[in-house]
Design goal:
Blueprint (H helix, E strand, L loop, with lengths): L3 H10 L4 H14 L6 E4 L1 H16 L11 E5 L26 H8 L3 E6 L33 H8 L5 E6 L5 H7 L2 E4 L19 E6 L2 H11 L17 H4 L8 E5 L9 H16 L3 E5 L7 H16 L17 H13 L2 H14 L4 H23 L4 E5 L15 H5 L6 H6 L3 E5 L10 E6 L4 H15 L11
Parallel strand pairs: 2-3, 2-4, 7-8, 7-9
Antiparallel strand pairs: 1-3, 4-6, 5-6, 5-10, 9-11, 10-11
The structure holds glutamine (GLN).
Length: 483
Amino acid sequence: MDSIVDIAGRVTRGEASAREIATDAVRRMKAGAELGAFISVLEDELLAEATAVDERRARGEALGPLAGVPVAVKDAICTRGVRTTAGSRALEGWVAPYDAHVVSRLRAAGAVVCGKTNMDEFAMGSSNENSAFFPAKNPHDPTRAPGGSSGGSAVAVAAEMAPASLGSDTGGSIRQPAALTGIVGVKPSYGRVSRFGLVAFASSLDQIGPFAGDVRGAARVLGVIAGHDPRDMTCRALEAVDFEAACGRDVSGLRLGVPEEYFAEGLDAEVETRVREAIAALEARGCKVAPVHLPHTKHAVATYYVIATAEASSNLSRYDGVRYGLRVEPQGGLAAMYGATRDAAFGKEVKRRILLGTYVLSAGHYDAYYAKAQRVRTLIARDFDAAFAEVDAIVCPTSPTPAFPLGERTRDPLSMYLSDVYTLPASLAGVPAVSVPCAPTAAGLPVGLQIVTRRDDEATALALAAAWEADRGPLPRARGAVT
Ligand code: GLN
């Protein structure tokens, strides 16, 4: 399907109407329904919004950089007047009373929200199989997972149902599904994008970011959603960056670090070959490639699962059946209502994490687990500081394996947690990272190159991703893509 930049250009020039583009998006979302990418297809809302864009154009108003572009939004991001479930029974019937900051920004830029995408419950997972409703399927092979937790957002773009989507990344949930479905995904620096209106999982890690079929499109969406918002106290007042301009930048002379810890046991041989090819192409463009060390990488999974579960146990205490969402009222008063509500509201993985998080925060265990994890988090962040004193970007695989079969990792939470070994460190350090497709494996499964840069230097990561994308050339379409 047409790219973000093409669609916006055609609508701005009057060569296509937003309504026409929206009608086609509705057809595509329906044709791809089998893939389970959407929890809600917003047909009526989409057509009404698109008509409003066309009316603005007819009045001679400026439309913005995403004029008429349908954007699929992860169902953890609030959209006024429509259901926002976060993939959970807890919020199954909950209608958001306001737009998340990023959604307001999208609308102001002329974009139209086409649907709310499937996800692991409360963004906890790496395969989309923890959705309370149904799994999403990988359009390159529907017997395989698309990755998670923003699996639906990745599938929507990879299967060409929408040109762009938003996801959220706490420990890899944009980058990993982007890699497994063969598209571009960007996790911004912590604090670059407002979290106002994002259903919280782990607040010190959560960031919203874009998925797109190409680097330039992702850069454009990032430019639209980024920016200060006083409603999120962790959202910083950074100077605006022209991310799209970075996509054409000369990358020669940039120093790339290859972290040995990311090319170790557990890395699929074909993934390694594909990633090394991409690094070699950047070297051929004049980048200087050298090994770097991130020695605390081996502690990232343990550290993340202490900190993220601690924050989740606190954030999820609000689903008590009193304020909003599901309520189950058995006999026995308030305590019984809390218990029955939370039992019915949450799936197994969410319960596991609440228990773990409550445990690591409890008196007697706090120092041994939570406080220690915070110290190790600092060591992981310092690894990146030390590496970035020597190099401008770190290049590595996004995921240790290509897309895995549905069901393969659901019985063993630890094997699922290991899907994110290469994405968790950047989240803990708060630095930005882009996943851009390499060439696929012999079996036709996508592979992602991850480019991690200094805090607030998304531009360099995008420049490198765009350079590699140009060398790589077009990718084969997903077998399950809608035509
Ligand atoms: N897979 C990781 C988890 O389950 C990361 C999820 C995310 O980034 N939201 O916590």
